Amino acid sequence: MATQTLTPPRVERAADTTLPIVLRLSPVIELTEEQFVAFCEQNHEVRIERTADGELELMTPVHIDTGSKELDISVQLGIWARRDGGGVAFGPSSGFTLPNGAVRSPDAAWIPRPRLAELTTEDKRGFGHICPDFVIELRSRSDRLSVLRAKMDEYIENGARLGWLLDPLDGRVYVYRPDSEVEILENPETVSADPELAGFALELADIWGQPF
């Protein structure tokens, strides 16, 4: 009997080593949702997202300056969310399964409590089946801006009401809302989430500069 040789999944890496690294599995391997969750747990050192087409996007740990900025963003959002009480804030380790099937881990996110209360037990398994109402992505030196902007579009198309792409490399904030043109803010000191998150404003001094 002839032996069938399977071609290994193809890895694509940009010539400039920017991220993410794209791992194409289909048609060699088709991961179920449960298998994808297990795969991520086995490779917890790597941040892994999945596109709506089933491609895996691999990202290495961020540099310490970016990690400090990510924490600053999460802390600011978390403090506001606790005081406000109307929703729950999430950090960069949280994965969400969007309506289009993609699994994304924004650097920070927020979801109102009434929406979370509607999730079924099945919805909560693995990477929760819900798109956050508010998402923040922070660009690092290794990130392609075009990839992040496409990801922001995806969040809005899947139900996010507000999204911020923070780009310390250019000192810009890209503000995304449904049915609106992307607003670009140049070197703002703060950015307000009103009216979607009433009273929340992100201080950007440590995001634009070096945190240490």
Structure write-up:
A six-stranded mixed β-sheet has the order 5-8-9-10-11-12, sandwiched between helices. A four-stranded antiparallel β-sheet has the order 1-2-4-3, with no helix packed on it. It has helices spanning 33-42, 64-84, 113-117, 121-124, 145-157, 205-208, and strands spanning 10-12, 21-24, 47-50, 56-59, 87-90, 96-97, 103-104, 108-112, 134-138, 162-167, 172-176, 183-186, 190-192, 201-203. The longest helix has 21 residues, at 64-84. The model is unreliable at 1-16 (pLDDT under 50). The chain is α+β, with helices and mostly antiparallel strands and 212 residues long.
Blueprint (SSEs and pairs):
Elements: E1 10-12, E2 21-24, H1 33-42, E3 47-50, E4 56-59, H2 64-84, E5 87-90, E6 96-97, E7 103-104, E8 108-112, H3 113-117, H4 121-124, E9 134-138, H5 145-157, E10 162-167, E11 172-176, E12 183-186, E13 190-192, E14 201-203, H6 205-208
Parallel strand pairs: 9-10
Antiparallel strand pairs: 1-2, 2-4, 3-4, 5-8, 6-7, 8-9, 10-11, 11-12, 13-14
